[in-house]
Amino acid sequence: MIFWIASYPKSGNTWLRTLISAYYYSKDGIYNENLIKNIGQFPEKKHFQGFNYLSQVAIDTTRFWLKAQEKINEDKKLRFFKTHNVFGSINERKFTNKENSIGCIYIVRDPRNVITSLKNHYELDYPDALSWMLNSKKFIHDYENLREYGDFQFISSWENNYKSWKSQNELPVKIIKYEDLMNKTYVVFTEIISFINEITKRREKISKLKIKN
After folding, report:
1. Residue 119 to residues 10, 89, 111, 154, 161, Cα–Cα distance (Å)
2. What is the structure's pLDDT at 192?
3. Pairing relation of β-strands 79-83 and 40-41?
4. How far apart are CA 31 and CA 48, in angstroms?
5. DSSP secondary structure letters along 66-101
6. Measuring CA to CA, which of 85, 112, 135, 179 is 20 to 30 A from 46?
7. How far apart, in whole angstroms, are the C-alpha atoms of residue 15 and residue 162?
8. In this structure, CATH architecture of domain 2-109+138-208
């Protein structure tokens, strides 16, 4: 089953993945750059190998979102995946469902800081960054290959993205604030691990040493 680490872009998703990967994929909780490779992104082009999608049509992979997740889940293992996609549908094609997903941590960041991060990352000015965040039809993909949409993600606006995960009732979701994770890292991350363990029915006790590390 898939456990999502979801967010709007530039909201701390990578940081959260480093913490989670260090906890679950190391013996001592000490991070190294190889650990985050255990938490990939969905969707990516590799997830649609064997599916006959039109690579130059932006939304065509949406036809195979659920089928690709079913394929991922064939071995019945728990996997964490990053996504910036909204929780919703395109042309009645669902991004995910309770048959393929078990839960989600959604990290939300003050939009006044998101806009600055977007501005710097994409080399925009503030009006363009604001327009980016307000665009309800916004999507992202591999901009280095403009004719390939295999990693198409429909992010919508900052508001819609946040509300889509918060208001859905198919999956258990824990909303955390980027600012709280920064200011109370140990406490908030302990809550995250507790939530993940509860949802995934892990029986082992939480390792305070791992969290400290």
Report:
1. 10, 28, 12, 19, 19
2. 98
3. parallel
4. 30
5. HHHHHHHGGG---EEEEE---SSEETTEES--TTTE
6. 135
7. 18
8. 3-Layer(aba) Sandwich (3.40)
Cα 175 to Cα 125: distance, rounded to the nearest angstrom: 29
Q: Which two tokens stand for residue 158?
A: 């900052």
Q: What is the pLDDT of residue 163?
A: 98
* Measured distance CA(104)–CA(121) in Å, rounded: 26
Angle at 193 between CA 188 and CA 195, to 5 degrees: 95
> Shortest CA distance to 42 belongs to which of 23, 22, 62?
62
pLDDT digits (tens, 9 = 90+) for 2-18: 999 999 999 999 999 99
- d(Cα 37, Cα 18) in Å, to the nearest integer? 9
Rounded mean pLDDT for each run of 10 residues along the chain, 213 residues in total: 97 96 96 95 92 86 95 95 96 96 98 96 94 96 73 96 97 98 97 97 93 95
DSSP 107: E
**What pLDDT shows up at residue 149?**
81
Please, which residues bridge with residue 107 across strands? 176
